[in-house]
Amino acid sequence: MERKNPIVQIKHVSKSYRRGSQIVPVLNDITVDINEGEFLALMGPSGSGKSTLLNLIAGIDRVDSGSILVDGVEITGLVETELANWRANHVGFVFQFYNLIPVLTAFENVELPLLLTRLTRKERKKHVEIALAAVNLSHRLAHYPAQLSGGEQQRVAIARAVVTDPTILVADEPTGDLDRKSAEEIMDLMDGLNRELGKTIIMVTHDPRAAQKAYVIRHLDKGVLNDVHHQNSV
Amino acid sequence: MYIIKILFRNALRHKLRTTLTVVGVIIAVLAFGLLRTVITTWYMSVEASAANRLWTRNSVSLILPLPIAYKDKIRQIEGVRSVSHITWFGGIYIDEKNFFAQFAVEPQTYMEAFPEYYIPPEQKAAMLRDRKGAVAGRKLAQRYGWKLGNVITLKGTIYPGTWEFTLRGIYEGTRKDADETVFFFHWDYLNETLKKTAKGMEDQVGSFIVITKNLEDVTGVVQRIDNSFKNSLAETLTETEKAFVLGFISMTDAIITAIEFVSFVVIAIILAVVANTMAMTARERIGEYAILKTLGFGWFKIAGLIFGESLVISVMGCALGIGLTFPIADVFGAAMGQYFPAFNVTLETIYMDIATSIIVGLLAAIIPCWHAIKTPVAGGLRRIG
Q1: Which chain A residues are within 8 Å of B378, Cβ to Cβ?
Q2: Can you tell me whether residue A33 is helix, strand or coil?
Q3: Chain B: closest CA distance from residue A195 (Å)
Q4: Contact criterion met (CB < 8 Å) for B291 and A99
Q5: Helix axes B299-335, B286-294, angle to 10 degrees
Q6: Which residues contact B315 (CB under 8 A, 6 or more apart)?
Q7: d(CA B64, CA B68)
Q8: What is the C-alpha to C-alpha distance for residues B368 and B71, in angstroms, rounded to an integer?
Q9: CA-CA distance, B123 to B114, in Å (whole number)?
Q10: Which of A60, A89, A112 sits opposite B377 (nearest CB)?
Q11: Which residue among A26, A116, A138, B148 is the one 20 to 30 A from B336 at the CA level?
Q12: Spatial distance between the Cα atoms of A177 and A157, rounded to a whole number of angstroms
């Protein structure tokens, strides 16, 4: 059953970057809704603005114009400190290069976002163990990122992204640095998070196989959202 | 606990760079500690001066003598409890490089005037009995391996001739900052010899040491002594011991200022070294700071990580530097004993070391921190991969 309640509302968003004396437009008057529980894949050629759009949704970059509402909160109106708090509570991130902190173990990396909550040490431990069990890494708690394979690192990153139970999960090329087998495992994990736990996932990808797991595929080209393609039902 | 763990792990991520920076801090703390100790030692005699001890010297110059006849006159002045005198001898022991202070004194009154020098009673009695007897400080006797009964020969420079003394006593300081490198002998021996060998130099002393009856009357006693010798051939200048010593030190003001300047230059250099390390560190971790910001860590927490890491490095270096300061100060003090009679690292110097390392740690992190905070999250994330 398709859920119609929009959790992300993007209204007339434009964004450009300054490159030397030139202003390079990246997103041009984007308007789109993303529904709660949706698994959206954003596709498009390099430089099409998909990562920029993802960053704007996640509140790690600023729009030039327009507004973005996530779960009723207009994040484009928040100041930096408010935005940091909002990200801590509402967004889980999965990056292409995993972006784990190399001096922390898998357990400590997953625990990191929980340090910003009021949970006790014991409660944090419980949450971390559940999150790592969910990505089948209960046996790798004390390993450092350098001791893990790429696929395992990405699973730790996913555990870190979901450990705070965020409103949305954003993923920027989550399989871009993985071999085919690991990429499939990661996509299965994300699919499970979406289907079984109802997580709203917004994923940027070049990989058509990864995009196949998504419920909705949108193409972005030269800063403009083109077609929408519905392929699975949640 | 979690944060401290991260700080230490981050600090040790580049072991060679951190080690070299810590070594730099250790050397700076050592240099700073030793230079401050030199300055402290320079002023040590000021701290050690007694409030009721006055020094009366020739008002024209310290090098001009005063007649011994002044002693009895001073003794009779109201408020004076006792009078001793001291005369710089300036002899050479074997070789000119073996410098140490030598004074011709009146042993009985001199030893009473300086209770901070302890001489065992039997040695004191032996000294008083022997006209050619001498007493040396413990460190001085140790330096030259002197034992009681040894004959010590000095070659006179101010007072010509070869002078032989028998070591009758070795004194020890009753306070940590007491000078244990002084050599003193009977002024009578000097004077009687001068009567035969250097007519015109006899019956003169360098300075009088006056002990007052009470501290309240010190100013009055000073005035009364100097008034007594007004319009005489040798007018006097009487000062408290503290003022007298400060007068000495003021002659070396330029050296002390230079040492102080160098000690702060050392700090400036190490600040640059730590700041450079932190700048490299922060530049390398811009991506990681961006990840932390993405996860919701605010600027205050990011700043805490950078300042914390800088402090870990500077404080680690400081702790090791302080630990090494004491043995190295002992070695330095022993090697330079003739110039620094009591080379002790004071608690104040340690506090300065700690404060300086904390300040260096904080200052070194300011610019890297500013840079890390100002870098936009998206910009920081682009640096990864």
Answers
A1: 52, 55, 60-61
A2: strand
A3: 24
A4: yes
A5: 140
A6: B357, B358, B361
A7: 13
A8: 69
A9: 16
A10: A60
A11: B148
A12: 13
What DSSP designation does B229 have? T
**What's the rounded mean pLDDT across residues A113-135?**
93
pLDDT, tens digit, 9 for 90 and up, residues B297-329: 999 999 999 999 999 999 999 999 999 999 999
Among the ranges A149-158, B38-47, B370-379, which has the highest mean pLDDT value? A149-158
CA-to-CA distance for B372 and B374, rounded, in angstroms? 6
Classify burial at B335, counting beta carbons within 10 Å of its beta carbon; exposed 0-12, middle 13-18, buried 19 or more.
Answer: exposed
> Token digits for A100?
């784990």
How far apart are the CA of B321 and the nearest CA of chain A, in angstroms? 27
- Written in H, E and C, the secondary structure of A150-202 is HHHHHHHHHHHHHCCCCCEEEEECCCCCCCHHHHHHHHHHHHHHHHHHCCEEE
- H and E: helices and strands count for chain A: 7, 10
Closest C-alpha to B28, from B308, B342, B364: B364
Give the residue extent of every domain in chain B.
2-44+253-381, 60-234
Tell whether A142 is within 8 A of chain B (Cβ).
Answer: no
- Angstroms from A1 CA to nearest CA on chain B: 32
Alpha helical stretches, state H, B170-298: 187-197, 218-228, 241-250, 253-284, 286-294
Q: Does B295 contact A81 at a Cβ distance shorter than 8 Å? A: no
Chain B hits for A58, Cβ within 8 Å: 294
Quote the minimal CA–CA distance from B339 to chain A in Å: 51
Question: What span, in angstroms and rounded, lies between the C-alpha atoms of B89 and B204?
Answer: 12
CB contact under 8 A, B294 and A89: no
pTM (two decimals): 0.74
Query: A222 forms bridges with which residues in the sheet?
Result: none
Residues of chain A in contact with residue B294, where contact means CB-CB under 8 angstroms, are 58, 60, 87, 93
- In chain B, residues with a C-beta closer than 8 Å to the C-beta of A113 are 295-296
Which residue from B215, B221, B209, B208 is spatially nearest to B79, judged by alpha carbons? B221
ipTM of the complex: 0.89
Residue with tokens 């890390």: B372
Structure tokens at B7: 């700080």
pLDDT at A1: 43
The model's confidence at residue B1, banded by pLDDT at 50, 70 and 90, is low
Report in angstroms the alpha-carbon separations of B97 from B91, B138, B338: 11, 19, 10
Residues in chain B: 385
